[in-house]
Structure formats: C-alpha cells, structure tokens
C-alpha cells in the first residue's frame, strides 16, 4: 500500500528541495502549490501528485482536504512548509494581514492535521511505526520580530500547536517542529542585505536546504522524539 508524504508549499525553495529529495529516494509524495511554477510540472513528471491549494479561506482548505483524501487513504507524514513572509510595512490593513498570517501558518495546519489524522493512523496501523507531522516554524518564535509582528505571532501559534498535537496524537503520531533562521537567500537579495544577515549567526553561512532535509530525516527516522522544536539557526540565539 502506498504511503505518501504530504508537503505543503512545494513549488519553490525549501518545499521544492524536500520534494526532490524524497522523489530521489523513491518515496511517494503529494505536494501542494499556490502558483504553478515550472518546478511543479517537473515534480509531476517525476511522479509527484500535485494539488493546487491557496489556503486563502476555510472553503479552500476544506476543498484541499477532500482532494487529498481522493488520492490516498494513508500518509506516512505531513510536512507543513507552506508560508508567507509578509509584514506590516507592506500591508496597512493590519486586520487582514493578521488573519491571513494566522490562516496560512496556524489554521490551515490545524484543520489539515485534524482531518488527516485517520490517514496517519492508517499508516501506523499498517506498518507498526509512528507517522509524523512536522511544522516548519521560524527562529522568530523565540524572540519575536518588530518588523513582522503578525507573521511571528502566527508561527508562535504553530509552535504551540506542535505541543498540543503531540500530546493528542501520541504514541501513534509524532509531532515536531523545525525552527529555521536563514537557510537560503532570495535571488533579489542585495549584497548588503546578505552581509548583514550572515553576521546575525555564529556560523555566518548560508547553509542551504540540506540542513532542513537532514533535520526532517532525523525526525522521521526517530521513534522517540515528539513535541519538540528543532532550532536550525546557526547559533543565532547567542549573538
């Protein structure tokens, strides 16, 4: 019986890297995307099941869950990677910004986890191994951010959901978080921004998506870790 891994927001960056990694291993995957980049066509050509999902309202989330269940009756893992790096400076409608950040980063994972519990439990029953939920949060959960208030609050909510779901679903489903700081720069980032950002961590490097892939693999391979947040921040908390 096929046991796919669901990766949300897999059209680019970390989500895409995770999708490519699992496909290279021969692991079945289901991915969501908001914008159909060329990479999605490539993933589909390699065998990934690709589902459009915007998570822009409750109906869209419910529709995605229906589509998900039409493709599989069990899941090995869910990796909640879908995210929006939005901020108050770019949005003067603060109420809408706050609602959007909470919906993408907290409400969608909350609803998907609850609705997909039976799929994860089916995997555990059929294999004898715990299934996994992994939330991609953020370093800012630890200290907040004066420039990304709503974003930080929503990621903190997701971090809290990690603990609650771990307690609710144990021992059949492990639930953990990964809290990254800088992983990869954007193409449009200036040299000045890059230099400033690199100085914020002890390691002082752009580590690349392999750091997240390694962290995900560690959590998937463990039969014991649950309810924890793994920092992947280069020692930034000590600067």
Automatic annotation (TrEMBL):
<dbReference type="GO" id="GO:0004146">
    <property type="term" value="F:dihydrofolate reductase activity"/>
</dbReference>
<dbReference type="InterPro" id="IPR002347">
    <property type="entry name" value="SDR_fam"/>
</dbReference>
<protein>
    <recommendedName>
        <fullName>Dihydromonapterin reductase</fullName>
        <ecNumber>1.5.1.3</ecNumber>
        <ecNumber>1.5.1.50</ecNumber>
    </recommendedName>
</protein>
<keyword id="KW-0560">Oxidoreductase</keyword>
<comment type="function">
    <text>Catalyzes the reduction of dihydromonapterin to tetrahydromonapterin. Also has lower activity with dihydrofolate.</text>
</comment>
<comment type="similarity">
    <text>Belongs to the short-chain dehydrogenases/reductases (SDR) family. FolM subfamily.</text>
</comment>
<keyword id="KW-0554">One-carbon metabolism</keyword>
<dbReference type="InterPro" id="IPR036291">
    <property type="entry name" value="NAD(P)-bd_dom_sf"/>
</dbReference>
<dbReference type="Pfam" id="PF13561">
    <property type="entry name" value="adh_short_C2"/>
</dbReference>
<dbReference type="GO" id="GO:0006730">
    <property type="term" value="P:one-carbon metabolic process"/>
</dbReference>
<keyword id="KW-0521">NADP</keyword>
<dbReference type="InterPro" id="IPR020904">
    <property type="entry name" value="Sc_DH/Rdtase_CS"/>
</dbReference>
